[in-house]
Amino acid sequence: MTEPSTARRVYIRTYGCQMNVYDSERMAEMLAPLGYTRTEAPEAADLIVLNTCHIREKAAEKVYSDLGRLVPLRATARRASRRVRFVVAGCVAQAEGAEIRRRRPEVDIVVGPQTYHRLPELLARADRAGKAPAICTDFPAVRKFDELPARSGSGPAAFLSVQEGCDRFCTFCVVPYTRGAEYSRPVEDVVREAETLVDQGASELCLLGQNVNAYHGLDAGGREVSLAGLLRRLAEIDGIARLRYTTSHPANMTDELIRAHGDLEPLMPYLHLPVQSGSDRVLRAMNRAHTAASFRATVRALREVRPDLALSSDFIVGFPGETEHDFEATLRLVEETSFAAAYSFRYSRRPGTPAAVLPHQVAEPDKARRLSILQALLADQQHSFNRGFENATVPVLFERRGRLAGQLTGRSPWMHAVHVDADESFLGTIQPVVVTRAGPHGLAGVLAIDCENATG
Ligand code: SAH
Ligand code: SF4
Ligand code: F3S
Known about the structure:
Blueprint: E1 8-14, H1 18-31, E2 36-38, E3 47-52, H2 57-70, H3 73-79, E4 85-89, H4 90-96, H5 98-103, E5 109-111, H6 119-128, E6 134-136, H7 144-147, E7 157-161, E8 163-164, H8 175-178, E9 183-184, H9 187-199, E10 204-208, E11 216-218, E12 224-226, H10 227-235, E13 242-246, H11 255-263, E14 270-272, H12 280-285, H13 292-305, E15 310-317, H14 324-337, E16 341-346, H15 364-387, E17 393-401, E18 407-411, E19 417-421, E20 430-438, E21 442-447, H16 448-455
Parallel strand pairs: 1-2, 1-3, 3-4, 4-5, 5-6, 7-10, 10-13, 14-15, 15-16, 19-21
Antiparallel strand pairs: 8-9, 11-12, 17-18, 17-20, 18-19, 20-21
The structure holds S-adenosyl-L-homocysteine, iron/sulfur cluster and FE3-S4 cluster.
S-adenosyl-L-homocysteine binds near residues 173 and 276.
């Protein structure tokens, strides 16, 4: 049987954070009624979408090198009488707008994170206009969430965007400029989307926001609801076994939210709480609104209610003016806190942010040296955290097939990736797994039921 003539393929490459992963899913859902199915092969695509990230220079520049590699596909397709369109979406689109077309005239559409719900209309406009570009990077009054279609299935562990934008203006960060002002989706909207995801097979939800613990959406009665309130509401939905949220700001970790970690059963014992630095001088220059001591106090309070909490964080080394002394304060904080996971970066100068023009920029070799010292310490901590789970039995939600045949991959409550030999029928279920090996990046185990069969 031949495919209907409207059958088209879209290739979406996602850069950056989980919010972009969510946005890419939503774009795919929106393009489905136009006949687009998703493909992993750019050479088979009629539409190529790069959903980009502007957070560090490397991430932003990668888009251009990828475009350089992908654009020749247009000529290949033309020889086969096909037409390929290129869309640059996401935070680079928002930050650079028309500059993208100047550097890469082959790009048909540039669309920011607040306007991607208009993609179908922009595609139609690009069709009509022939080669004329469509650039859409405004922050419209109509919220895109009101215009997006219902969700169409996202697997056992689904992302759900509840908050967007950021009003904190850390001096190194582009997010307030690319994602705009803080906005919280209304509670009922979130609940509806959560119910749809659960109907479609999700049992874990990860609530997303650039500053998610600043969430303050309105309920049906017009009252403001905090993130803790929203989590409690979602925990009541039948079929939700696990809840997570990311990314949080230390200054928004309220007592109420900390308490939820102690008494809200589906809330998983994992928290990503970026600290950036252990030096108060640097934290002040970053405009972080927390100190090393307040961060330590928050962690203490969290561990009091949830002693097994897996704590993850982000670090920046080589922020302008950071001295060896400041860096040592970061190492001290890491040593005292003990992290289960972490992401660490060299400071990257972002045009338009206040820190980009600060004096005393740190030399690249110094940043590189500090980063490798910090990463060695963090890697050690992560490995020893993982080793603590050897021989333990942990519940694993199987999310996907593993890399090896006959293997499934899932997550423990503490966010470990866990690899297990198991039948595909276990996909989407939570099973007890006996951990047989704890590596630096994840765990390997066997289904407890297989263990019993072997020994019993
Ligand atoms: N909203 C989150 C972080 C978003 S960006 C928060 O408040 O922490 C993810 C991480 O990228 C940040 O935590 C920070 O560690 C890093 N990052 C952001 N801007 C950066 C820059 N200019 N250079 C290096 N790392 C940066
Ligand atoms: Fe960026 Fe996070 Fe700071 Fe907001 S709170 S400006 S997203 S680092
Ligand atoms: Fe990157 Fe934008 Fe996310 S800059 S980290 S994709 S919010």
